[in-house]
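Good day; I would like, with your permission, to put a structural problem before you. What I wish to show you is a protein chain and, alongside it, a tokenised description of its three-dimensional fold. Thank you for your consideration; the sequence and its tokens are set out here:
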Amino acid sequence: MTAPNSRRMRLTPELVARVAPYVGAPRPLPGTPPSDADYDAAVREILAYAPSREAVWLFAFGSLIWNPACDFVERRVGIAPGWHRSFCLGWDRWYRGSDKHPGLMLSLDRGGQCEGAVYRLPPAAVETNLGTLLRREIRTKPSGHLWRWVSVRTAVGRLRAIAFVINRDGGRYVGRLSLPEIADALAVAAGPWGSMAEYLYSTVHHLEELGIHDRRLWSLQELVGDRIGAATAAAPGLPHDAIGPDLA
């Protein structure tokens, strides 16, 4: 559902800044990293099912909206039926989480529909950009994400796009958490890439800029903002381990 960008978020940059940053060395990723040959094979498989080199689109539902990590020659707003945006990729101890306070990342899960952005990759550099996207989204074997061709409805017609969806069999699927449980994690988690509060803020903010109002994420940012505000109101600058429950 689209709506004008007139709402005021409860989760503000000032509240995001109250989450203490991660301190320490990055943890090694679990599993085995894919090889260049693995990525090259995936690019060939993606292109084997592409409508044409001129019509290779990427469906972005989370951080790829505000950090697409690829070149593009066209952008539209679109709806992917049969999928919904969900904080169902857990528990992150490597990017925006830690052993003490692991984070949750967005993915596409089955059911419902998801409104996001679609980017058309430059035809002359499709392989390069797909390789970049795969290296960003699929970093280990087994991976929390899988690539899929999905159908997307846009204002000027339907198209097919690449999307990175949850791997329910990859060992990191947590699809039955309540909003309060998700908010508990996002309010405190931080890692080498930044905090989960920052990730949530950027996602909701940029969705609203596109005229996309995700009611569930909107409720989630209110809960996270309330938690950070309550935890830091009396004593701003509390050490990271002092804010929020131990979810490890």
